[in-house]
Task: structure prediction
Amino acid sequence: MPPVTPPPLHVLVVEDDEDVATLLGAYLRRLDCTVTLASSGERAVEAARTTPPDVAIVDIVLPGIDGWEVIAQLRDSRDGTCKMVSMSVADFDEAEHPNVCLRLPKPFTWADVKRVVAPLLNSCAG
Result:
């Protein structure tokens, strides 16, 4: 019997800059993920209700509800099963934000995405 291939991981990208969201989505697809893009916190929460993500990469500075609130709502709705990655140009004290698994700095490169996100995706698949 051939080994069963797990389904691709679903990643929700929450980013209000369309160019950044498109680039990150392309990088994630190179890692064999399915991707949903949301341009605001409200859209992200609604998208997560429709198709629950395995991983959410959330920009902290968003129109409407900010990234911290998006992370809190997603964690509550998924009982903590969705892995959270914060994305920000600004530094913050990670100890103050225990709901975040990893941090992706902005601006990012393909190498940054692989370094930060690929191990998390692998841990979700295993």
